[in-house]
Amino acid sequence: MMISLDQVGKRYNYDWIFRRVTLSFEQGGRYAILGPNGSGKSTLLQVIAGAIQHSEGTITYSTPQETIAHDEFFNNCTFATPYLELVEEFTLTEAIHFHQQFKSFLPGIEPGKAMELVGLEKAAKKQIRYFSSGMKQRIKLALAILSDVPVLMLDEPCTNLDAAGVAVYQQLITEYGGNRLIIVSSNDEQEYFMCKDYIHISHYK
Ligand SMILES: Nc1ncnc2c1ncn2[C@@H]1O[C@H](COP(=O)(O)OP(=O)(O)OP(=O)(O)O)[C@@H](O)[C@H]1O
């Protein structure tokens, strides 16, 4: 999967959040979107994912064989963000089964294994509403990183994680990142430890 942005901009009312973003994201690449609070990192990540509409410019999704339609791209991508909520009424087991109706896990990953990888195997039957914020973040990371899709979008992936949680995140990326395209929006080096390409949002003001 390759994602190309050509002169892309986003504005809210009269405020341009960023303009003239021309970038290519390639299969297997690791990209970090960097900048201070409120600079537009999350907005750019959501624009790249097609989750919010850009105001100008063109975004193209493609594989070596074909161009992917915008309304098909979400099938190729998972998103982990602090602002997307889990369904609180589900148990962890139900949350995983629900997710798998839309995105299956990587080969060899069963629900039990996914829980174990993020240290939540003892919480399989607990309702999400009783999970701590760090436990919820571990679930979001497992659902995103272990899904069998070519593109991972991670917005502040270590939000609410303790040191052990950060180690779990880094282990998941290292072990299961594979040849996928990963884009991280972050202020924290621990979150973008694997990235070689840095996009400074301040360059696009
Ligand atoms: N729906 C919206 N309507 C109006 N302004 C918005 C909207 N969403 C975001 N903004 C504004 O866009 C700017 C960029 O926000 P964004 O959340 O992308 O920043 P960020 O760099 O991810 O910040 P942080 O590091 O704090 O998460 C902010 O000024 C924010 O107030």
TrEMBL record:
PANTHER family: ABC TRANSPORTER ATP-BINDING PROTEIN ALBC-RELATED. Residues 3-204 form the ABC transporter domain. InterPro entries: AAA+_ATPase, ABC_transporter-like_ATP-bd, ABC_transporter-like_CS, ABC_Transporter_VariousFunc, P-loop_NTPase. The lineage of its organism: Bacteria, Pseudomonadati, Bacteroidota, Chitinophagia, Chitinophagales. Keywords: ATP-binding, Nucleotide-binding, Transport. One of its GO terms (molecular function) is ATP hydrolysis activity. It comes from the Bacteria. This is ABC transporter ATP-binding protein. Coiled coil: none annotated. It holds the Pfam family ABC_tran. It comes from Chitinophaga silvatica.
